[in-house]
Amino acid sequence: MFSRFEEIIANRHEHARQLGREKNKKIFGYLCSYVPEEIIYAAGGIPIRILTTEESPALSETLMQSYYCTFSRCLLHQGLNGDLDYMDGLVTAYSCATMRLAFDNMQRSVKFPYSRFLYMPGIIDTPDAKEFYYKELQRFLRDMEDFFGRSITDDDLREAIGVYDENRSLIKRIFEGRKASPPNISGREAYLLTLSSMLTDKADHNKMLRELIDELEGRKPLPEGASRVMLVGSPVDNLKLLDLIEKDIGAWVVGDDTCTGTRYVYGNVAPSDDLEDDPLRAIVERYMIRRAPCPAKHSQTRWVQCLPCPFRDVACFDLVPQPRNSLDDSISFHSPERICRFRNALQLGINHHVEGVIAVQQKFCDSHGFDFHHVTQAFQHVGIPSLFLEIDNVISVGQIKTRIQAFIEMLHPVDYMIEPEIREGIQV
Amino acid sequence: MITAGIDIGSMTANVVIMSFDNGEDKGTIMSDAIIPTGADSAGTAQKVIDKALKRTDLEFDDIEYIISTGYGRVIVPFADKNITEISCHAKGAHWVFSSARTVVDMGGQDCKVVTCDDTGKVTSFVMNDKCAAGAGRSMEVMARLVGVPLESVGELSHQFVDKPADITSTCVLFARSEVMELLRNGVNKKDILAGACEALVSRVISLMGRSQMEKDLIISGGIAKNSGITKRIEKRLNLEAKIPPEPQIIGALGAAVFAKDTFLKVKG
């Protein structure tokens, strides 16, 4: 059922190369989920996210010190290793300084026919920031027109937006089933969907997702009785972590707030007042305001806008412990105003009946490191405990397993731990 | 009912065999054994349980349920189930001292601070995550370097002549070269040992700062036998820590207690 998604991830470069050949399309690599893929897609290119491998990032060592996250060094290593030579372009949007460094080095050392660093402001919710990014994207759009030698009309943009919105909506629709007990799909399968979506033509992916939705209808339910955890933090693209939690230890990952998972599909471009007159502005709105932000981004108006927030008292300000059932379950998941990462993550945790949060931190990731304390505090105050877990591109099973297993033992009395028979069932 | 807990740590393998009259019984320790782990963990597991059995008139088959714990917990061929050493240390410490709320376990290659509730169930835990700093192995390296037996480090560290030497490196290898420099400069061995203990304690205290520590504090693991560490922790925190009579078997003890609970559940 999921093998076609699995194949795309396992043979990502071969798949992308073939995609470009068969469709006669240009392949654009990108590094960060802040890149407005819709523009590249509207121009006639296929954006492919560059993800990590388990290979040691040896070639990056001379350009990036080992105290930068292995995520960024792994991307650079692949560039230097010639793995990305088939790509026609490389694009990233400014998120953190480390990714910028990886991009700079790739731009310098790997000769892409086109490369561009999109200057996205660090403070994202002021009118000036939006205007600035709008102008930056206008320039990018003109670049794309020059590169592809054709003009990109508003209709082209609206069509691309339609394909991307549909992809996000389909994945979100499947993810809704993770609220159930047992969830409709495992955490590993959820990541298979978002990761493969980043690695192929979205129109094809939509077709695969529609077929999957039909197949899931008749699926035998997953085993019951396992603990429900959520991943929050740095990018997770190594499925071994999911295997460790779900197969080896035996707990379901029923939700996440990571840019390689649910955060990638938060917030559509439509409906938007701008879509009719100026679809580019609608795109800016989605990337600046409507998706859940990465901790590398800051919010200027937070103090004012947080006043009506239902989580204000429990999560951000007075830190008064509250029983979790006192929170209103009916608050809409995608609020029309600015999306707050904390509120979103808490809401997802509550709606998906999460018992514990694993705060995943790519080693040396500053942005998520600064965030960690506040995120875990927020969950603590609605009675959801959390575990801080440092990861690398290579998942070292020993210590990580002890930590996660002890955390799961902590959530439940040990004699309620999942029995091996159930764990067998998890290997679906 | 006879149960056993087996803790395959990075340095030593420990076994506790317990007997319980019934489900309500707190149980008694019938036998325990400690041997070095070595390279063959599965073989070590057999050896250490045989050693513990020899001190009783029991046969291996008399043991009704066995739970393994520690880094080698998944490679014990005869264990019925495995539970992490974090849960087991809390359970074991709680069995020895029912007032236990925080357990500092200082083992061969890691150090952890576990808090638990009044039933011995874990409520939070933190572990050293960088390297062997703050762990037993670093003490061993230091003892060998200055040429004293490991057992006498604690006593000697309290007899410093001038003042505890400054050892600032977190990495054991770098700390080792720092100590070699001190030795070359003629610094007294006792001052160096005092400095090494101070440095290790600082690391443990900062780890405790990250946890939600409550009294009573229990210190377990091999290093609890080193008064150079335990006395300094007590002094820094201004409290009296409780140290089990045999601090090295607390993980195995907790596993044996869990074995009773699990066995009763499995049996029906």
Summarize the structure.
The complex is a heterodimer of chains A (428) and B (268). In chain A, 50% of the residues lie in helices and 11% in strands. Chain A has 428 residues and is of the alpha/beta class.
Question: Can you describe this structure?
Answer:
The complex is a heterodimer of chains A (428) and B (268). In chain A, the strands form two sheets. Chain A has a four-stranded parallel β-sheet with strand order 2-1-3-4, sandwiched between helices. A four-stranded parallel β-sheet of chain A has the order 6-5-7-8, sandwiched between helices. Helix content of chain A is 50%, strand content 11%. The radius of gyration of chain A is 21 Å and the shape is globular. Chain A has helices at 3-10, 12-23, 37-43, 70-80, 97-109, 127-148, 154-176, 187-198, 202-217, 239-249, 262-265, 274-277, 279-290, 302-305, 312-316, 341-351, 366-380, 397-411, 420-426; strands spanning 26-30, 45-49, 89-93, 114-118, 227-233, 251-257, 356-362, 386-391. By secondary structure, chain A is of the alpha/beta class. Chain A starts with a helix and ends with a helix. Chain B has 268 residues and is of the alpha/beta class. Chain B folds into two domains: 2-97 and 248-267, ATPase, nucleotide binding domain (Nucleotidyltransferase, domain 5, 2-Layer Sandwich); 111-117 and 120-237, ATPase, nucleotide binding domain (Nucleotidyltransferase, domain 5). Chain B contains eight helices and nine strands. Chain B has helices at 41-54, 85-96, 136-146, 153-157, 172-184, 189-209, 227-237, 250-267; strands spanning 2-8, 12-19, 28-36, 65-69, 81-82, 102-106, 111-116, 122-127, 217-220. A five-stranded mixed β-sheet of chain B has the order 3-2-1-4-5. Chain B has a four-stranded mixed β-sheet with strand order 8-7-6-9, with helices on both faces. In chain B, strand 7 (111-116) and strand 8 (122-127) form a beta hairpin. In chain B, helix 2 crosses helix 8 and helix 6 (189-209) packs across helix 7 (227-237). Chain B starts with a strand and ends with a helix. The chains are: A alpha/beta (428), B alpha/beta (268). Chains A and B meet through helix 18 of A and helix 2, strand 8 and helix 8 of B.
